[in-house]
Amino acid sequence: MATLTVKDLNPLFGAEVSGLEPRVPLDADTIAQLRALFDEKGMLVFRDVEVDIKFQTYLSELLIGNDVADPDALKLNDKFLISNKEPTGAAPHGRLLYHSDQMWSGTDRVDLISLYGQEVGQPATPTMFVSARHAWTSLPDDLRERIAGRQALQHYDPETYRKRARGDTDVLVSTYASDNMATIRPIALPHPRTGEQILYVCQQTTQQIIDMPIEESDAVLDALFEHMYGEGMEFAHHWREGDLVIWDNIAMQHARPNVTIEGPARTLRKTLCPVPKMSGDMGPKYGKIEEAA
């Protein structure tokens, strides 16, 4: 059994884990320890580790409770890159609003995301995180009353991006947006694995609160966003090569400041677990807001 050292990233969520040997298979005690830590903290960071796509995928499956009987049978994809340098890299430039992947999908749920620092120049644009679980437990009583029993429409469309970006044309929008990329979910959503309540709204795809006048909906959503993304709620992970960052895609949301093509290399190898059927090998393609009709 590996001897793991755990350090909190901040008081609200996240842990940096040292001492993990990236090998397949891991022993049962290490798996149990990592699973418990993942469910408690929502986000794990491993620094200065040499990790191939097989271990990255294997660990992702383990952390959400999947027992991998045959690691050699895992479907591997080392071509899914978030990169401003690789020709086929996803989200190559721009700012990303806070979101959880596939929030707009009614059937294609993503439980976990991992990113590995494959090539990272400095200074590297960070990835920002907030806890939707903490956002719910710390929600002021007046806001909690206004959304009691309410549902929200999650819609992956350019108009939602424009509204949340507030004129910032560096924000990226998916060019795959369509009427089919929408679902309705409770604003207070039980986590499918842990059962804990989370605040299920985000800047990127939450279009409106169902059965609420649009002006009132916008005002309530703005208040929820101010709470969720407010002072003291965010954590910035500053990338180095050899970083492996894994988070609960339902309990956590992520974003990033602006990335430029001309800036330092920022190539992060990405895995999704489970792999959504709609995303293909590379996931959604992005364009700037002004390019999306």
Structure overview:
The protein is an alpha+beta fold and 293 residues long. The protein has helices at residues 28-41, 53-63, 132-137, 141-146, 158-165, 214-228, and strands at residues 5-8, 15-18, 43-46, 81-83, 94-99, 112-120, 127-131, 151-155, 172-174, 182-186, 188-190, 197-199, 206-209, 235-237, 244-248, 252-259, 266-273, 286-288. The chain has a 7-stranded mixed beta sheet. It has a 4-stranded antiparallel beta sheet with strand order 5-16-7-14. Strand 11 (188-190) and strand 12 form a beta hairpin. The N and C termini lie far apart (54 Å).
What is the residue-mean pLDDT, rounded to a whole number? 91
Shape: globular
Intertermini distance: 54 Å
**Main sheet: which strands, in order across?**
1-2-3-15-6-17-4
Number of helices: 6
Q: Bin the strand percentage.
A: 25-35%
Radius of gyration: 19 Å
What structural class results from the helix and strand content? alpha+beta
Total beta strand runs: 18
Could you name the ranges where pLDDT drops below 50 across 5 or more consecutive residues?
279-286, 288-293
The helical percent reads 10-25%
Order of helices and strands: EEHEHEEEEHHEHEEEEEHEEEEE
Major beta sheet, specifics? 7 strands, mixed
Provide a concise account of the structure shown.
The chain is an alpha+beta fold and 293 residues long. The protein has six helices and 18 strands.
